[in-house]
Amino acid sequence: MKYRLYPGCALLAASLFFTFSSAMAVTGGFSSEPGVDTAGRTYPEEELRRQLIKESKVIFINGDEGERADRDSVESMMLRFYYDQFRSSQDPEAPMFTFMSKNADLVMGIGATLKVRGMFDWNGSVPNAGFNTYLINMPKTPENWRQLRGDAAGSSIFFNLMGRHTVIGDYRVYIQGGFNGYGNSGFKLKKAWLQVRDFTVGLAPTTFSDPAAQPDLLDGAGANGKIDKTNVLVRYLHTFKGRWSVAGSLEFPSSNPDVDDATTKKCNDYIPDVAALGQYQWNRGLSHVRIAALLRTMSYRDLLTNETRHRVGWGVMLGTTVRAGRYIQFFGQTSVGKGISAYTGDLSSGNYDLLANPLHPGELYAPTTLTGTVGLKAFWMPRLTSTFAVATLRNFATDGTHDATYKYGQFLAVNLLYNITPRIQCGLEYLAGKRMNFNRDHANANRLEAVLTASF
Description:
Blueprint: H1 7-27, H2 44-55, E1 57-61, H3 71-78, E2 97-101, E3 106-122, E4 147-151, E5 156-165, E6 169-178, E7 188-196, E8 199-205, E9 230-240, E10 244-251, E11 264-266, E12 273-282, E13 287-302, E14 307-323, E15 328-338, E16 355-356, E17 364-365, E18 368-381, E19 384-396, E20 406-421, E21 424-437, E22 442-455
Parallel strand pairs: 1-2
Antiparallel strand pairs: 2-3, 3-4, 3-5, 3-22, 5-6, 6-7, 7-8, 8-9, 9-10, 10-12, 11-13, 12-13, 13-14, 14-15, 15-18, 16-17, 18-19, 19-20, 20-21, 21-22
């Protein structure tokens, strides 16, 4: 198999290096004081979060007014909602109404996010609420040349419980469901996990990911090159002195091999995926560099020889988000691996973890996958921000692969977001994407998307 340098991937790799180097130059490098940036700044998103907490309504359970915790203790406890190493820009804000014990050692909140979208596609279309370049209609015909649609996909409700216990320490229970299931309207469980001190158990974002390193986009699908998957897992994550974090997890597997049921057949997954990460953070956690790794084993049945075969998949991911002063934020993420397509943005929509070997019937192999995403967010005014992002994903399948197999995808997005109030936002986003197959068939799509979001 021959590998050729793909210009888009090379450009993104260079951009990622330039982004990180430039941001380090602007910020003066790593802060030497844990939890404080080099200039002692507070950032717009921190101010927005504190305003959300201050305006939230707290209902105390038991205890007279004079026995209740002071407001600073209350707000400190509620801000723990945002202390999440796997939080992304798509996650909901802290709930508006919260029940709290009199001494602020137990907090329960129920909240929701309403997202209403209007979308217009032209010069090609995507038959989905999320702008996924893998799903671009191919070939383009007069029937799918343009499209106008609207929906409330991405709306969600959640339950959050946080507490402190003298024996088990800090703990948290989080459950979130979204209305983006069947037909983009059915209810779907998105997250359900329990965290006790450094341990997390449940349905949560994979350790082989860095959601905060993904650009703040309005579209629910995000960049096509993102690493993003939710697994049932058991994870240990520990942070040293507020700066260094390490984590490891065992995750329930879910592989997507391309079997034909004539020469190959999928076997049940029975070996857990193993993921780990290391991270350095500064600016109170708003800037970081993370490296993560994944190891997995996938099985299939060779029906021609009547044998069960195993293939090993692996991946390495590098992610970063860096504040360059008070009003600029950089994002970057790149990954490479074999048999990790189920973890990537575009290819998770298909069966690309294992592909058929065109030279050896009955044999599957793990193709190499390369992804890259870079972005920049500008804080123009206290309530006005915009994000620019480009991304690519490349599938290095072997020679002779089926013509209709996805070869690469390219993605671009630019948006403008205005906070009408801390809990109500409106935004406009332009998206462009391209899909290329191995037979050189390709299609483009353009989308203009308007979004109204309300959190409560």
